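Bumping my old thread because nobody answered last time. Still need a sequence for this structure:
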């Protein structure tokens, strides 16, 4: 259902307010680049520093700007089950095509607690749901066993965004999940090996900048043209790495600002890039002709 290329959108700010015009322009660029869908207010969208009204407004803007031309997956996860339910129900009302649910962070529930958390959310909505396992940020992963239990018990849990950096885990998931259950890479640099192991696409940060190129990489890999996919992967690999040289989405916003698409502003506790990291990123952007 969610195979393809999705962009984990940054949330543009200006004077500490959501820059709605810049956000709409960003989405137009995504659609022009052939993206399958957009993901407003995921981690890349600084969801942790948006209040509930802002969170829902950004999703509303995403649905409006997409206007049915691509899928919209609202980021609605939380470490509070009640809050995740509230955000997911609102995303459904706003017209999203699905919701992305990150594993609860900080409180580190057991695997049984994880199961019950996602089960309660699934029972609250008819939206198709994408689980999001990113242990580096959450301190826990959604186990293969829990993923399978959820997929079997809830028809609207249809995919997982896998950001654990392990090809072996993708293989383990693919071996036991039904073929219609989608596995998406959560790391641009792992998209090629993940697809080779059975993933069917990516939720990308780099596609904020270069949607058409990331789409080409995914399409080549999924269609089995590994020669072309490798060529694109190795050309873009320096960018994939440098977009995480400092905390995401700081480098992505800096790069977009260099192209005049938005301000580089992020909200505390994130801050602007350091001088050496900025110089390294800018050199890579010039090498790839992303900036002059």
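Sorry it took so long. Here it is:
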């Amino acid at each position: 259902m969610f195979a393809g290329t999705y962009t984990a959108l940054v949330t543009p700010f200006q004077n500490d307010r959501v820059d709605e015009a810049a956000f709409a322009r960003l989405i137009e660029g995504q659609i022009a680049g052939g993206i399958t869908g957009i993901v407003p207010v995921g981690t890349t969208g600084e969801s942790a520093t948006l209040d509930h009204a802002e969170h829902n407004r950004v999703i509303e803007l995403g649905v409006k700007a997409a206007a049915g031309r691509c899928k919209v997956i609202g980021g609605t996860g939380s470490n509070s089950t009640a809050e995740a339910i509230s955000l997911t129900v609102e995303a459904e009302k706003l017209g999203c095509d699905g919701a992305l649910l990150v594993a609860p962070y900080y409180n580190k529930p057991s695997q049984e607690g994880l199961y019950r958390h996602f089960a309660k959310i699934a029972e609250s909505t008819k939206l198709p749901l994408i689980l999001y396992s990113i242990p580096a940020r959450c301190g826990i992963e959604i186990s293969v066993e829990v993923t399978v239990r959820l997929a079997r018990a809830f028809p609207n849990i249809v995919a997982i965004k896998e950001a654990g950096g392990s090809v072996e885990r993708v293989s383990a998931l693919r071996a036991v999940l039904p073929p219609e259950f989608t596995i998406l890479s959560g790391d641009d640099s792992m998209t090629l090996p993940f697809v080779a192991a059975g993933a069917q696409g990516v939720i990308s940060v780099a596609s904020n900048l270069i949607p058409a190129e990331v789409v080409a990489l995914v399409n080549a890999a999924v269609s089995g043209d590994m020669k072309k996919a490798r060529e694109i992967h190795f050309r873009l690999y320096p960018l994939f790495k440098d977009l995480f040289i400092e905390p995401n989405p700081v480098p992505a916003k800096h790069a977009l600002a260099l192209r005049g698409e938005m301000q580089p502003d992020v909200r505390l506790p994130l801050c602007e890039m350091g001088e050496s990291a900025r110089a390294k990123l800018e050199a890579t952007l010039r090498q790839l002709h992303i900036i002059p």
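The mean pLDDT is 97. Let me know if any region looks off to you.
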